[in-house]
């Protein structure tokens, strides 16, 4: 496909702002849409997003706006960076302004709850003229905004689209790898959040580093089995958006899912509130288990997370249930 000159970034939270910086550093003409006027003013004026990226002054100026039509005007590609559960609504809102055939890169990590659809399928329903793509991998917004180096996967059904998007976003601090596996990239991104809650709970409950590593490894088995059942490629599951992101989020308090898990672990049962920060795994746990059931894939750790979050199981009982499952050979 032709070179990508102008990119619209939809969503002015931590990741949307960081990705707008990535695109600007890669030499793209960037317009960032945020719904909150104070955020737009701070980005345009002080080169900051104090609500979502506190303490970071950007190395580049960005053009932000509260007007969707202005942000979308002439965009060759769109980065959709609002929470997973808002994808259908926001895709519907940008639909009137989206150029036919423009790639829409899904940057949220989750599965739609009501429908059980991956976000690329949500996009196909809400914005059928767009070409779905996904960006995922080990990448904390604050690190990326600070220009710390990382690598991610960018996937699209047509690998030449993934190649073009990778070229459009690459810079010395941000290295995308192109992939044709749109399903695998999304399954990894959604499941690692659920598993990070489990690992955080282990941390918060004081069950030790050995338990956390064991849970991460068995969690990877869940992620791989679900991915394989949905048609993911093995190299995606062991790659940046699968194992890479799982390792990051299951071991770092910088992760909101892991931090949510720590709070859960300290409480022993599901906390009443999330403390305001987005933890996507909370929304994906049960729907992932339901998808697994439909495909004959058991997800015991994700199931335990869903049951604890749903209030039907305490953490201590969840641990006992996992540890006393019938013994089997490792696979
Ligand atoms: N923060 C991070 O390090 C990373 C986040 N992600 C993913 O990116 C997605 C977004 O996360 P963040 O930007 O970090 O969250 P955030 O909480 O920092 O920001 C969310 C943004 O979405 C906006 N928003 C919420 N509901 C909306 C709606 N209905 N319509 C329009 N805008 C709406 C909020 O106003 C806010 O600007 C999540 O799925 C997350 O898993 C992916 C990689 C890294
Ligand atoms: O996806 C992320 C890093 O790759 C961010 O993780 P959290 O949403 O748990 O903060």
UniProtKB/TrEMBL annotation:
NADPH binds at residues 15, 35, 109, 141, 256, 278, 280. GO terms for molecular function: glycerol-3-phosphate dehydrogenase [NAD(P)+] activity; NAD binding. Substrate binds at residues 109, 256-257. Pfam families: NAD_Gly3P_dh_C (PF07479), NAD_Gly3P_dh_N (PF01210). Sn-glycerol 3-phosphate binds at residues 109, 137, 139, 192, 245, 255-257. Residues 181-319 form the Glycerol-3-phosphate dehydrogenase NAD-dependent C-terminal domain. Keywords: Cytoplasm, Lipid biosynthesis, Lipid metabolism, NAD, NADP, Nucleotide-binding, Oxidoreductase, Phospholipid biosynthesis, Phospholipid metabolism. Pathway: Membrane lipid metabolism; glycerophospholipid metabolism. Its main location: cytoplasm. It is found in: Cytoplasm. NAD(+) binds at residues 11-16, 141, 256, 277. It catalyses: sn-glycerol 3-phosphate + NADP(+) = dihydroxyacetone phosphate + NADPH + H(+); sn-glycerol 3-phosphate + NAD(+) = dihydroxyacetone phosphate + NADH + H(+). Residues 7-161 form the Glycerol-3-phosphate dehydrogenase NAD-dependent N-terminal domain. The keyword Nucleotide-binding applies. GO terms for cellular component: cytosol. It is an enzyme of class 1 (oxidoreductase). The active site is at 192 (proton acceptor). The keyword Lipid metabolism applies. InterPro entries: 6-PGluconate_DH-like_C_sf, 6PGD_dom2, G3P_DH_NAD-dep, G3P_DH_NAD-dep_C, G3P_DH_NAD-dep_N, NAD(P)-bd_dom_sf. Belongs to the NAD-dependent glycerol-3-phosphate dehydrogenase family. Catalyzes the reduction of the glycolytic intermediate dihydroxyacetone phosphate (DHAP) to sn-glycerol 3-phosphate (G3P), the key precursor for phospholipid synthesis. This is Glycerol-3-phosphate dehydrogenase [NAD(P)+]. It comes from Stappia albiluteola.
């Amino acid at each position: 496909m032709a070179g990508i000159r102008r990119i619209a970034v939809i969503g002015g939270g931590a990741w949307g702002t960081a990705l707008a910086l990535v695109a600007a550093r890669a030499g793209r003409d960037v317009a960032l849409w945020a719904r909150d006027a104070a955020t737009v003013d701070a980005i345009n004026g002080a080169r900051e997003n104090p609500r979502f990226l506190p303490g970071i002054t950007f190395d580049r100026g960005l053009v932000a706006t509260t007007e969707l039509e202005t942000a979308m005007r002439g965009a060759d590609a769109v980065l959709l960076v609002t929470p997973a559960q808002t994808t259908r609504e926001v895709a519907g809102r940008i639909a009137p302004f989206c150029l036919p055939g423009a790639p829409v890169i899904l940057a949220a990590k989750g599965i739609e709850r009501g429908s059980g659809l991956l976000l690329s399928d949500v996009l196909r329903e809400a914005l059928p003229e767009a070409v779905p793509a996904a960006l995922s991998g080990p990448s904390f917004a604050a690190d990326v905004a600070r220009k710390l180096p990382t690598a991610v996967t960018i996937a699209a059904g047509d690998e030449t689209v993934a190649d073009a998007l990778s070229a459009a976003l690459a810079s010395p601090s941000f290295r995308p790898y192109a992939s044709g596996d749109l399903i695998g990239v999304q399954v990894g991104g959604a499941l690692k959040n659920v598993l990070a809650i489990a690992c955080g709970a282990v941390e918060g409950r004081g069950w030790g580093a050995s338990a956390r590593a064991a849970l991460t490894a068995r969690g990877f088995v869940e992620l791989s089995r679900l991915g394989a059942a949905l048609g993911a490629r093995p190299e995606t599951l062991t790659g940046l958006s699968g194992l890479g992101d799982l390792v990051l989020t299951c071991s770092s308090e910088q992760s909101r899912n892991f931090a949510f898990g720590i709070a859960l672990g300290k409480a022993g049962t599901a906390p009443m509130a999330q403390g305001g920060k987005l933890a996507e795994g909370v929304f994906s746990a049960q729907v992932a288990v339901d998808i697994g059931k439909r495909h004959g894939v058991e997800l015991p750790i994700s199931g335990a997370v869903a049951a604890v979050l749903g209030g039907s199981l305490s953490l201590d009982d969840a641990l006992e249930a996992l540890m006393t499952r019938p013994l089997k050979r490792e696979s």
